[in-house]
Amino acid sequence: MSESLKSFADAIRTAAAGKRPLRLRGGGSKDFYGQVIAGEPLDTRGYAGVIAYEPTELVVTAKCGTALAGLESTLRENGQMLAFEPPHYAPPGEGGATVGGMLAAGLAGPRRASAGAVRDFVLGVTLMDARGETLRFGGTVMKNVAGYDLSRLMAGSMGTLGLVLDVSLKVLPLPAAEATLRFEMPEDKAIETLNRWAGRPLPISASAYTGGELHVRLSGAPPALDSARRRLGGERLDDEQARRFWSGIREHTDDFFRTESQLWRLSLPSATPPLGLQGAQLIEWGGALRWLATGADARTLREAARRAGGHATLFRGGTEEERRSAGVFHPLEPALAKLHRDLKASFDPEGIFNRGRMYPDF
């Protein structure tokens, strides 16, 4: 066992013996996300590096403290990418996003609607449990299904189930070409248009509607892009303008996200018509993801999301008291809450890992 792993195990066993919470932390780029930050920090950045990468196999395995920017750079050098476009929310370097934090947060960027979520690319994980023991779930090849669902559980678990030591991820080739088109239209027409286009064989890899403008990104072979552009029309952005636009959406540096209001994340059926809620809005993922910068109360937002068949998350903003009273994540139905508590009890019976980060009782 390496010195880093021994240090992790010692810290975990000491915390479990005293029933004291541990705060699992990489670069801290997503400290704003989640319910409560509590416990003694356990810094994962010392356990970093790519364990295995064979471009021809489309699989990479990296340690939890690996800088996400560094991993993506390595993939780009080989013409490959993390297709779910994980956001960093911090510049590379000190405080930059890590692979472990990426998996724990489970957040995906603009390409999510066409490529899939973080969990869809997880092939296997190595986990250190609350006893300081190392467990392996899943594998490192795409045909391996042993323990696959347990591996996927770690995506979006906010570090509440254990310390992920490393993760094996499926990677994909970079697109041969991309083009971004811009259209002016009202919100209801944008939602209808995106859902109509979704039923056609179009190479749409991302969409974003804000300020009366719909942006659509096309990805694929040049002939396919040329054909799609002729069918869709619109104004094409130059490549640098398009790069800045999608980076602003992915990393929340776009002017829309520079708000002092609370930022809510509503996940809804893509064809849901405009909700008419108070505040400024940005729509992604073909209508399925709706960002809302608003002063509206949590009950109003969550009831609107529930009626539409979705859920609402307080993504950023609000005082600690407001976040505690409203709850960051959408309240769970009793059966689902029990399932979450049972999972927490199985993986972390003493409740030491990121206690209260998702919900107050686990």
Strand neighbour order, sheet with most strands: 13-10-12-11-15-16-14-17
How is the biggest beta sheet arranged?
A: 8 strands, antiparallel
Instruction: Note the run of SSEs as H and E.
Output: HEEEEHEHHEEHEEEHEEHEHEEEHEHH
Give helix % range.
Answer: 25-40%
Indicate the low-confidence ranges by residue numbers.
none
Kindly provide the name of the CATH class of the largest domain: Alpha Beta
- How many domains? The number is 3
Task: Compute the number of strand runs.
Answer: 17
Determine the mean pLDDT.
94
CATH topology of the largest domain: Uridine Diphospho-n-acetylenolpyruvylglucosamine Reductase, domain 3
List the total number of helices: 11
Shape: globular
Strand content: 15-25%
